[in-house]
Amino acid sequence: MTLRAAIADDEPVALHRLRTLLSEAGWDVDAFEDGKLLLNHLREHPADALFLDIQMPGLSGLEVLGELPDPPPPVIFVTARSEYALAAFEHAAVDYLLKPVTADRLNKTLARIAGNQVPRRSVSELRAALPAPGPAAHATPGQPLRFPVRAGEGKLLLELRRVSHFEVVDQVVWAHAGKQKYRTSWVSLAEVEAAFPATGLLRIQRHLLVRPEAVLGVRSLNSGRRAVLVQDGVELEASRSAAHALKERLGI
Q1: 157-193 pLDDT per residue, tens
Q2: Which of the following CATH numbers is that of domain 146-250: 2.40.50.1020, 2.40.50.140, 1.10.357.20, 2.60.40.1180?
């Protein structure tokens, strides 16, 4: 019997690639560009496995996980962020696939699922395995997103719209706003991304996360990489792997 997979990923290239690989492996595939569409589809069309991008506009992969029926089908998270794949959700998902997904790596996951080697845990068990959230972002209707930063012996709430980029150094995340930088309570950029899932923060280096609206310009470097210009004349070098996502996000 042919097995059926359902995919949710807001990146068209990644969605097409995974759909093609699954089809080539003999699976029937339903593909969606956001988690809400996938959940609506599952109400009448059950799947044998779900492949969820961790970060998507609307419902993230983690939020989709929380809405699944009990017991859920096997869940595989697909992400470009290696931090997510290391340990954070190791008990909450069948497997992790890092983008770009390769056929060999995907086939190992499919073999486990097709061979019934994957126990189906309850939603409560999956939720219990999720890591504790980092410091919360604060927002009220009509008000800007804010987050706590250290100020002397106390803390201030800094508006996200003032921040050009986040930088992690020795497990300390710094928020850069103009000529100032502020120490946050986060220890990884993955925590920043989880705090602002719908803002489209863009990872341009393993240690740099840029707010796209703060980007003033982009130029090519001799190395083939790109330099990102933000406020106060600050330039940040983007990795080669981030160049394509950067161009798509900025529409250039």
Answers
A1: 899 999 999 999 988 999 999 889 999 988 888 888 8
A2: 2.40.50.1020
d(CA 54, CA 17): 17
Cα 10–Cα 106–Cα 12 angle in degrees, nearest 5: 20
Take residue 79 and report the two structure tokens written for it.
């992400």
Q: Give the per-residue pLDDT at 28.
A: 95
Separation in Å, CA 149 to CA 89, 133, 174, 199? 26, 16, 9, 19
Q: Which helix (H) or strand (E) holds 104?
A: helix 103-114
Burial class (CB in 10 A: 0-12, 13-18, 19+), 109: buried
